[in-house]
What we know:
- The protein is an all-alpha fold.
- Helices cover 75% and strands 0% of the residues.
- The chain has helices at 2-44, 47-50, 54-63, 76-107, 110-124, 128-147, 150-155, 167-191, 195-203, 208-219, 221-237, 240-245, 269-276, 283-317.
- Helix 4 packs parallel to helix 8 (167-191) and helix 11 (221-237) runs antiparallel to helix 14 (283-317).
- The relative contact order is 0.15.
Amino acid sequence: MKKKAISANLPQIIIYALSAISIAVIAFIFVFVFYRAFPTIKENGISLITASGFDRQIQQAFYSSDAEPMLTFGMLGLVSGTLITTLSALLFATLMGIGAAIIICEYARGFVSRALIAVVRLLAAVPSVVYGLIGIIVVVPAVERLFVTVDRQIEYLSYFQMSGRGLLAAAIVLTFMIAPTVVSLTVDAINAVPHSYKETGYAFGMSKFRVIFKIILPCARSGIVAAIVLGAGRGIGEAIAVSMVCGGIGFLPKASLGLMNFLAPTLPLAPAIINKSEAMGSFAVESALFSCGAILLMIGAFLSVGAKAVEKKMRKQAGYAES
Length: 323
């Protein structure tokens, strides 16, 4: 009888075991990263993300001894580069993604719709290094040709060296990396809206445009938010492609430069780990790069919690019971 009970509950036991393993792995990653980053976090405190100068400091840390490591770092330029690059890319990827999903679900028909979603999902699976190569070959020369002139290089030379590699190129590459994810998940969210809801709208004489924006998108907004959050997560954590086009310098944007900040080189947190990893033989550099990882983990955690709060509020507004 006991064996039968175990057999009946076996799927549930397996699910619980796998869930426990997943939680343990995530907890281990957090503990391990913060443990290795602790010397830098302890030395700097909040100034780790409020001060700048990371490029110069990482060189000094590399030549410091393990007996007296140089653990003073300021990562404000890296954090601002991460947030500005990701938010810029996410804005355009969201607009493109929702628009493309509407076309695929509501305007394209039959084979065309299936072909488009297949292409989108294929693009979402393309390795990031391929986007980086396209960025180097296409995006960087295009930015340099369109926006970088000799006069501008001379005018802003005291601030940064202007080339095609910079925040704008990184944002463009990241946009096309995030967009397929947003499109794919938004398509699933729109397709999950019951067909009877649309028919009700048409029955009341609503146009297709009004049905889409008054019925379909509000009903699918929870899935759309999830798509945006996953896109943001990919953008924040992307390293390879962005590191190939960002310029590799943690320049802190200045309000006085206005839109010229987008032509400045940048160094988000994830590419910083890639670019400086060859110097990890130094204890101080290793601790600093693990600090970059710790900040990325915290941003990801806040993003997840924030998305859950937004979803909960949306469900409450829609009249769903609390789960």
